[in-house]
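Readers of this paper often ask what the protein records in our data store actually look like. This encoding replaces a full spatial description with a residue-level series of whole-number codes. For reference, a complete record is included directly beneath this paragraph.
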Amino acid sequence: MAQAAVTDTAESPSRPIGLRGVVADISSDQRAFKNVPWGKAMMWIFLLSDTFIFSIFLLSYMTVRWSTKVPWPNPSEVFALTIGGQSIPLILIAIMTFILISSSGTMAMAVKFGYARDRKKTAILMLVTAAFGASFVGMQAFEWTKLIQEGVRPWGNPWGAPQFGSTFFLITGFHGTHVSIGVIFLIAIARKVWRGDYDVQRKGFFTSRKGNYEIVEITGLYWHFVDLVWSSSSHYFICGEGNRGTRKNTSPSDQCIPVDMGAALCSQRLFLPCRLLQR
């Protein structure tokens, strides 16, 4: 009996062949994922894949803008907003950027209070973050409506290269969808935090171990990613007013400096993509 038990213990189960074997090796790894919650690991993997998608969109935008022979629309004119009879360039984008940056602050505070198990402050801060996100989506809808009324379409616009409309609606629409999903996610988690679901381990969606508020941090990872994508992608639209062949006797860095308020929004560290666009 003892010898049979030793023999059975010594025998290892057969390893699957091919892709299943690779998956089995990774899933059984006790070092790479040790002490890392699966929810957080999966969120990081999702964000990595999403980074590839946004990178492809932005690279496509750079390629289209660099290769077109038609002058690219001036962002100070396209994204100008008339307030009190005066046209203010890029004011709406500046407000939207400020809102998302502020929402990252409230989300970070929500994560802090979540690990301190302060349900009330965590839920309130998550709802404030959701309100910031909802206001951002509302402003984006207003911006889309304004541009559509002015004649911007995916196949053309009144100011220059027709590719501007398709790239603008694709990138901002994809990002706006992420923000909308994030707002719904924030409200759902805030409701569960407020009710104390994570203190009693109530069954349902997005549950975790009793007394564990790691879901708040996972939500924060997604929200910070959304904010970072906007801070990066918006500069591709506001940096530079000309394109290849439209301005002469100027250096690439001069072409990258946008008009008026764009100069404040386009910092020195973001001149590189503009040089690539206007080389």
User: Anything to note?
Assistant: Strands lie at 80-83, 86-89. The mean pLDDT is 77. The longest strand covers residues 80-83.
